[in-house]
Amino acid sequence: MRLIVGYQATPSGEDGIALAAVLARTLDAALDICIVLPCERPVPSKAPVEVAYEKILVDQATEWLADAMTFVPEDISAEGHLLFDESFAQGLIDIATERDAYMIVVGAASDGLLGRHAIGSVTSELLHVAHVPLALAPRGTRHSTVGRIREITCAVGNRPGAEALTKAAYDLSAKASLPIRLLSLVSIDSRPAGADTSSKATRERDLAKAEDNLSRARSALPEGTAVTSLVAEGSGIEKAVTSLDWHDGDVLMVGSSRLGQPRRLFLGSTAAKILRVLPVPMIVVPRGEGDRS
Fold first, then answer.
1. Among residues 41, 106, 216, 241, which one has the fewest Cβ atoms lying within 10 Å of its Cβ?
2. CB count, 10 Å around CB of 164?
3. CA 97: distance to chain centroid?
4. Which pLDDT value is given to residue 83?
5. What is the pTM of this model?
């Protein structure tokens, strides 16, 4: 099994390698650490200045890649790759296809809060076009002492079509013998416009729907799966997420938005809200071909 790591010579790049190492150790996987440079332009005769600049760029990237390899723990197998593509994200997607990778891993943007997520341009593009799960490392992951994933929390939505997510959660659980915590979020801001947000009947209906979502998700898992479930409630999605107990070694898995294309990622509004306050890594799973809209 292989994991693709999108590396840039920043603390964010180190965060991505740190999370990838934890995932690799948990899954007995190998890493492909990748730097993507812009494609060389097919100019018949390049000026000496252009040639010199491109050589400097390649030499510098080669040094960065060598530095990146030093961040990989000794017990993890890793290869470094210097790729060329007009798009950093597309370069990662192409090598993920070529190497039949299980997942792509990236770090948060450098302007995020410590211990939280922030989406940069590369991550944003990956979240719209990647065909494999995308693991996002919170800022500061490089300082973590976590060795392995402890538990998978799987956020079960309130719309049909979560088969790809529950299958991916079980797949990861089975590969690494990890327990699954199924999660359903209930919040006032997720209720339809004009709905009575304060009545007891509305709250009870929402909680009952959340429990039904969890029950259906549990029934989709093979018998014998180590699974627990809970409903988290708050005035908003963010409040519901922060009301939970999160531990070192936890990861949250969410499904791609129903607005995305099948077998592609698309971060929906609920997942984006979760991402802003989530203190642990998030893994976004592409929609399945049979998921309904």
1. 41
2. 20
3. 17
4. 93
5. 0.85
Task: Report strand pairing: 282-285 vs 134-137.
Answer: antiparallel
Sheet holding 180-187, edge to edge: 78-84, 30-37, 2-6, 103-107, 134-137, 282-285, 250-255, 151-155, 180-187, 227-234
Alpha-carbon span 261 to 180, nearest angstrom: 27
CA distances from 270 to 62, 89, 274 (A): 39, 23, 6
**Chunked mean pLDDT (size 10), the chain, 293 residues:** 95 95 96 88 52 78 95 96 92 95 87 61 84 92 94 80 79 92 80 59 80 83 86 86 92 72 56 85 74 40
Q: How many CB atoms lie within 10 A of CB 252?
A: 24
Query: What pairing do the DSSP bridges indicate for beta strands 250-255 and 151-155?
Result: parallel
Residue 3 to residue 35: CA distance in whole angstroms? 14
Which residue bears the tokens 């593509």?
85
3-class secondary structure, 291: coil
Alpha-carbon span 84 to 76, nearest angstrom: 25
